[in-house]
Automatic annotation (TrEMBL):
Gene: Dpy19l3
Superkingdom of this protein's organism: Eukaryota
Region spans: Disordered: 1-34
Pfam family, one: Dpy19
Chain intervals with Basic residues compositional bias: 1-10
Matching CDD domains: Dpy19L3
GO cellular component terms listed in the entry, alphabetical order: nuclear inner membrane
Keywords: Glycosyltransferase, Membrane, Transferase, Transmembrane, Transmembrane helix
Species whose genome carries this gene: Alaudala cheleensis
Protein name: D19L3 mannosyltransferase
Gene Ontology molecular function terms on file: mannosyltransferase activity
Length: 716
């Protein structure tokens, strides 16, 4: 823990090399005496048992989510087309590249098809490896081709088992992080059990398998575990180098597998920045972590053919700005309280200005606009003006990008996780404030050894990092529901660490004047064990019932559509429709698309809005012209979008299009005064009447209860 020691004149507070209670065991030469032989043997035995338990819980979690997936879909029994349809929306798009690599005549041909892809976006050749984070699909397909497993394991099972296997890595990383923080593997057991019993809020891997976050979050958890170990004291140089290498590898893999990596690591960099400014982390280690983030992201940039969105990321601009500002302000951590606060304010302003300057310069030089929709969304979300921007509103109206629902907390509380988390968070926040104030005050305060010793407040660097990490990612989760999985998994770690932490109980008992070392040890082990027993008795029957519940995939309309496309359209046909459906069309039929769900490209966003005019109030001639301009041969209309009821007025897709086109919305309710009635009826409704003005451009060739497919006339 970071301990408040006697200050030397003119220097900031040092980070203690161990806990206060252990300082008496340090020899005058600074070396720690070796453990007695019996203690060393017990330590080895404890670590061995803890490691076996960690691996067992990881594998059990992997089997658990795999079983839930099988039971929910009867995946082993359904047809191939049904399996592929089960990979909904963008999941299907990503899996299609794995399938494409598997079916290619050779690995070289498969890679060439990805680098020069003309099937994902019609009348355009794009580099999939540059545009999307699909190296994991490439690696997995190559592995499947070279391993002698084709006769025993279907490609789809190799893919999903790999993702379920990564869940084992995820749980083990959470377990190890909690173990490192608390010093006991009992904490890791509690973290893993909380992760499993709160599965609804900690993961969604069993029904969104190929989603990028399911690849990335296990590596992020490994990175956090490595950082936790790195921030420990008394590391040997060789241990520190190996840990830095582990942090780099995990950071690189996390960055390679998820397009939103830069935003997650920016929050992580902010946590490091805050703690470094408050003198709660060793500056040298923080510098290394900044450099690792930059180098990992730049390496991914090279692998993604110098993706401009990475170069223009706020993370790179921020980290470079911090390193420059630190060089300019060399005496940042010297002086008294008000002197340091003044320097700190200047430092923050300097970093902020440099970040904006560097980021704006890079984006201007590269003419970068790929991520502008994200900033438009954030601007509108946090109330910096209303927007009619179609892309921003598309995000704003999605439940996943809304505020975290309140029922999340009731679910987390039912397992005692949220109550424990709040308790630990409150105590550590108070401790952090006290330690930060003492660090900034610069007063020569001596740690007394008499009665005042019981009021000494300490905070280890790894615990301080975990605290700020959970606070910042908690704020992210509260503002954006989709990001809750980054918070809730770490919540399990943080709560279990606090419940098993001798230092935390020692602090609490001293404040209550009830402290004895024996009482602390009893509470440290008894309360976690009682909590584990409560979780087991309350949730084990529910888990067993869940595992025994059998369901089956059923979507006959989509299956009929995909089979019709494969049987009745040429392989070169171009299809237009909703982003979500077209991802499935590409996976199931291999046909060319006009648009798709990977939204991080300005030209694609403009094209999507253009295609979506099929649900707006436009003339048949206009819609036909827009669709033919992107090479469309067939257009798929969905009743679930045309007559949408899932969203309220103002958030239906047709409403977003009406507002963006300057038209008043359907139904009762207010409209902005400058919106005007459209001269034309809604296209998706009117086309079904087979009026001459529509049939001259569109011919219906397929219809079922959900979908209507029209072939476009090719006249000029």
């Amino acid at each position: 823990m970071t301990t408040i020691r006697q200050r030397r004149a003119g220097k900031g507070t040092e980070a203690a090399e161990d806990q206060p209670s252990e300082e008496t065991n340090v020899k005058p030469d600074g070396k720690i005496p070796p453990d007695p032989p019996g203690g060393k043997l017990w330590n080895i035995l404890s670590k061995t048992v803890g490691g076996i338990v960690a691996i067992s819980l990881g594998l059990l979690t992997s089997v658990y989510v795999a079983t839930l997936h099988e039971n929910d879909l009867w995946f082993s029994n359904i047809k191939e087309v049904e399996r592929e349809i089960s990979f909904r929306t963008e999941c299907g798009l990503y899996y299609s590249y794995y399938k494409q690599m598997i079916q290619a005549a050779s690995i070289q041909q498969g890679l060439h098809g990805l680098v020069y892809d003309n099937k994902t976006e019609s009348v355009r050749t794009i580099n999939i490896l540059e545009r999307m984070n699909v190296y994991q699909e490439v690696f997995l397909s190559i592995l499947y081709r070279i391993l002698p497993i084709q006769q025993y394991l279907e490609p789809v099972y190799f893919y999903i088992y790999t993702l379920f296997g990564l869940q084992a890595v995820y749980v083990i990383a959470l377990y190890v992080t909690s173990w490192l923080l608390s010093g006991t593997w009992l904490s890791g057991v509690l973290a893993a059990c909380w992760y499993i019993t709160n599965r609804v809020d900690t993961t969604r891997v069993e029904f969104t398998i190929p989603l990028r976050e399911n690849w990335a979050l296990p590596f992020f958890a490994v990175q956090i575990a490595a950082i936790t170990y790195l921030l420990r004291t008394h590391l040997q140089p060789a241990q520190e180098r190996l840990t830095l290498m582990a942090v780099f590898i995990a950071t690189f893999l996390f960055s390679l597998t998820w397009q939103f990596n830069q935003f997650m690591m920016l929050i992580q960099a902010l946590a490091l920045f805050i703690l470094d400014c408050l003198d709660m982390l060793p500056t040298a280690k923080v510098t290394w972590l900044y450099i690792i983030q930059i180098s990992g992201l730049l390496l991914v940039c090279v692998l993604q053919f110098f993706n401009s969105m990475i170069l223009g990321s706020l993370l790179i601009s921020f980290n470079v700005s911090v390193l420059i500002a630190r060089t300019i302000q060399k005496n940042l951590k010297k002086g008294g309280l008000f002197n340091r606060l003044g320097k700190l304010i200047l430092h923050v302003l300097l970093v902020l200005c440099l970040t904006l300057l560097i980021n704006k310069s890079i984006k201007k030089i590269l003419n970068l606009e790929s991520d502008e929709h994200i900033f438009k969304f954030l601007k509108a979300k946090f109330g910096f003006g209303a927007t009619r921007d179609f892309d921003a509103n598309l995000y704003l109206c999605e439940e996943a990008f809304g505020l975290l629902p309140l029922n999340t907390f009731s679910r987390l509380s039912s397992t005692l996780l949220f109550y424990t988390y709040g308790f630990v968070l409150s105590l550590l926040t108070v401790a952090a404030v006290i330690v930060a104030f003492r660090n900034l005050s610069g007063s020569n305060q001596v740690q007394l050894k008499d009665k005042m010793e019981e009021y000494t407040v300490t905070l280890k660097p790894d615990a301080a990092y975990s605290l700020v990490h959970t606070v910042l990612f908690g704020c992210l989760a509260l503002s954006t529901m989709r990001m809750k999985y980054l918070w809730t998994s770490h919540m399990c770690v943080f709560a279990s660490f606090g419940l098993c932490s001798a230092e935390l109980w020692k602090l609490l008992l001293k404040c209550l004047h009830l402290y004895t070392s024996q009482r602390t040890q009893v509470i440290k082990y008894s309360i976690p064990i009682i909590t584990l027993l409560y979780i087991s008795f309350k949730f084990w029957p529910g888990i067993m019932d869940e595992l025994s519940e059998l369901r089956e995939f059923y979507d006959p309309d989509t299956v009929e559509l995909m089979n019709w496309i494969k049987s009745n359209t040429p392989s070169t046909a171009v299809f237009a429709g909703s982003m979500q459906l077209l991802a499935g069309v590409k996976l199931c039929t291999g046909r060319t698309l006009t648009n798709h769900p990977h939204y991080e490209d300005k030209n694609l966003r403009e094209r999507t809005k253009q295609v979506y005019q099929i649900y707006a109030k436009r003339s048949p001639g206009e819609v036909h012209g827009l669709l033919r301009s992107v090479g469309t041969d067939y257009v798929i209309l969905e009743d679930s979008i045309c007559y949408e009821r899932r969203h309220g007025r103002g958030c239906r897709l047709r409403d977003l299009l009406d507002v963006a086109n300057g038209h008043i919305m359907d139904g009762l309710g207010e409209n902005d005064p400058d919106l005007k009635p459209s001269l034309y009826p809604r296209f998706c409704e009117e086309i079904k009447k087979n009026l001459p003005s529509y049939t001259m451009h569109f011919t219906r060739v397929f219809q079922n209860k959900t979908f209507h497919v029209y072939k476009l006339a090719k006249h000029k």
